[in-house]
Automatic annotation (TrEMBL):
Protein name: Tetraacyldisaccharide 4'-kinase
Family: Belongs to the LpxK family.
Reaction(s) catalysed (UniProt annotation): a lipid A disaccharide + ATP = a lipid IVA + ADP + H(+)
Function: Transfers the gamma-phosphate of ATP to the 4'-position of a tetraacyldisaccharide 1-phosphate intermediate (termed DS-1-P) to form tetraacyldisaccharide 1,4'-bis-phosphate (lipid IVA).
Lineage: Bacteria, Pseudomonadati, Bacteroidota, Flavobacteriia, Flavobacteriales
Gene source species: Hyunsoonleella aestuarii
Entry-linked InterPro entries: LpxK, P-loop_NTPase
Amino acid sequence: MVTWLRNKLFDLGLLKSVSYNFPVICVGNLSVGGTGKTPMIEYLIRLLKDDFAVATLSRGYKRKTKGFQLANKNSSAASLGDEPFQFYSKFKENILVAVDADRINGIKNLIVQESSIEIVLLDDAFQHRKVKAGFNIMLTTFEKPYFSDIVLPTGDLREPRRGAKRADIIVVTKCPKGLSNSDKDSILKQIKPNKNQHVFFSSISYSDKVFTMESKRNLSELNDFTLVTGIANANPLVEFLKVNKLEFEHLNFKDHHEFSIEDIEALKQKELILTTEKDFMRLKQYAELKDKLFYLPIQVKMDNEATFNKLVLDYMKNDN
């Protein structure tokens, strides 16, 4: 009732949202954790970075700092949070990366830092309605779609299902490869999109190579390793590795796990470690793991990439 009332007050204009005279794209979800926001933000960065001055703004979940932080050469997962630090590590030559739990204050500071910003990507901000994004992309997983879920604490939704109507695009993420048209139609019937809404389906595309800070190897060369994950749902990765007939043990930690001294001591005893790119951002600071720690990159694979890209680029063109 509280979240319903809050959204209603925003809808009626009794609670105010701040709009901006430049494009703002929000990527978020209705549920807690694990829908694929980080790879979607990276997809948008790759789409936009060559033609626009891009900035990302995240909350900076579990960081050790407060207030506004702009990523720089001294930043770390501790100062930014693991996901924003990942954005900075991969795209620092092309974009600005900032964190602030207060999105209005974050955008204000970004503009002060760089007045030529042409697009702000808001990470995990679907419920942050004090900022009125010009374009909303909402994610929901194939395995646990929002229309089959209910609000916390009984279910995993942050707000009622009707919140999906605020989205311009709904992406069903982590779909199995070769999802049939009949399965897609069945999902569409349950989403019941408005006429102005577009629904897409995406899957996870894993690299065939793994990386350390200084080298890379073919994934097929790995065997008898320890898989370390601290993400919301490691099942797709585990299944992918099993399909590739790789032998490994799995140390499965909770999402955004803060690795303790005891954890690192235990990992030092392992001969070879494979982890996710997000976990790598927290683990790469430990020099004793340097030569044995590999990460496996992932990317979003859209089912109708050209149409999705056109919708985003049309918004950029029409909002400028």
